[in-house]
Design a protein that fits this description.
Elements (H helix, E strand, L loop, with lengths): L2 H17 L15 E11 L15 E3 L2 E11 L4 E7 L3 E7 L2 E9 L2 E7 L6 E19 L4 E3 L2 E14 L4 E11 L1 E6 L4 E6 L3 E10 L1
Antiparallel strand pairs: 1-3, 1-14, 2-5, 3-4, 4-7, 5-6, 6-8, 7-8, 8-10, 9-12, 10-11, 11-14, 12-13
Length: about 210
């Protein structure tokens, strides 16, 4: 994890401590709807890792980091088990090779996770999750338009986070995900040149509303 990502986690932890000083009622209320919507500010911090090929050395390709808003929707099957669908608008990245920008791409990475929410801690509600990510790329062009990236890419993820109840319906959220996902770098004719290991950390801080 890079220094920027570590700093982001420190700030998220500090915010959680600050919010935890507020008095709030218990959030695990049977009268609440099973639907929860969150809005987060998300830091997408990618790896600098790739296989060697096409005259490109290993671990010299970088898909740029990105900070942007993110929306997710959760459905609680029970008070402990929930499914979460993470969605966002398209993310634009630059592609960097050995310190030089050589192009860019757009991607949309919806993620579906199954979560376990721990209870018995009052207004503090940590959770763990795991699931699958589908990354669709387009407008991908590199090396003067001679290279592109695979459009359909699948990967797995792990998740840890916490909700803190501010009121019966409103909550504060901190969330960290690690996604393992690759994209093929290809010629415009479809020949694979190398594999970019994007493998981002997703670091989110935001607020949610339980209906």
């Amino acid at each position: 994890m890079n220094q920027k990502s570590t700093t982001c986690i420190y700030w998220a932890a500090a915010a959680a401590v600050a919010v935890s000083t507020l008095a709030a009622p218990a959030w695990a209320d049977d009268s609440l709807s099973p639907w929860l919507v969150r809005v987060r500010l998300l830091d997408v911090a990618t790896d600098r890792s790739n296989s060697a090929g096409g005259g490109v050395a290993s671990d010299t390709l970088k898909v740029s980091d990105k900070v942007q808003p993110e929306v997710d929707v959760s459905y609680f099957f029970t008070k402990n088990i929930a499914a979460e669908l993470i969605a966002t608008y398209p993310v634009s990245h630059n592609i960097n090779l050995s310190g030089t920008d050589i192009g860019g791409l757009k991607e949309l990475p919806p993620t579906l996770n199954l979560q376990y929410h721990f209870d018995g801690m009052g207004t503090f509600m940590p959770y763990l999750g795991a699931g699958v990510t589908y990354m669709r790329t387009w407008d991908s062009s590199a090396a003067g338009g001679t290279l592109t990236t695979s459009q359909n890419n699948w990967g797995a993820d792990l998740q840890a986070g916490m909700d803190y109840a501010l009121t019966k319906h409103w909550l504060f959220n901190v969330d960290v995900k690690k996604i393992w996902i690759d994209a093929k770098v290809q010629t415009t004719s479809g020949t694979d040149v190398l594999t970019a290991h994007i493998n981002p950390w997703l670091l989110g801080v935001g607020f949610g509303y339980r209906f």
